[in-house]
Amino acid sequence: MTSKIHREETKDMSRILLKHVRLMNGEIVDMLIMNGRIAQIDTDLTMPATINVIEGQRQLLMPGLVNAHAHIDKNLLG
């Protein structure tokens, strides 16, 4: 079975830019991850073409190892 994820050889996987992701407070931001850690959060980050960019499509950004059954809709939507 082959992976559906294809990465260009020139992309720098130690730096990832997540575009248009929703924080827990509802704000839409871009997040730069460098070496597995959050390096920068801003509303419109631009990076060189060698950085791997993932389009978040305004989806909720949650930290890893979170109980997926949490009722976050009650916090974000009222």
Question: Features of this protein?
Answer:
78 residues, mainly beta, four-stranded mixed sheet, disordered N terminus
- The amount of helix comes to under 10%
Report how far apart the termini are.
Answer: 43 Å
Number of helical elements: 1
What integer value in Å does the Rg equal?
14 Å
- Count of extended strands: 4
Element order: H for helix, E for strand: EEEEH
Strand order of the largest sheet: 3-2-1-4
Flag low-confidence runs. 1-8
Strand content: 35-45%
Class by helix and strand content?
mainly beta
Please tell me the overall pLDDT: 80
Q: Characterize the largest beta sheet: strand count, sense, and whether it forms a barrel.
A: 4 strands, mixed
Overall, the morphology is globular
In short:
By secondary structure, the chain is mainly β. The protein is 6% helix and 37% strand. The protein is built from 1 helix and 4 strands, in the order ββββα.
How would you portray this structure in words?
By secondary structure, this protein is mostly beta strands. The chain is 6% helix and 37% strand. The chain is built from 1 helix and 4 strands; from the N terminus they run ββββα. It has one helix at residues 72-76, and strands spanning 12-22, 28-34, 37-42, 51-55. It has a 4-stranded mixed beta sheet, with no helix packed on it. β2 (28-34) and β3 (37-42) form a beta hairpin. The longest helix is centred in the last third of the chain and has 5 residues, at 72-76. It starts with 11 loop residues before the first strand and ends with a helix.
In terms of topology, how is this protein built?
Layout: E1 12-22, E2 28-34, E3 37-42, E4 51-55, H1 72-76
Parallel strand pairs: 1-4
Antiparallel strand pairs: 1-2, 2-3
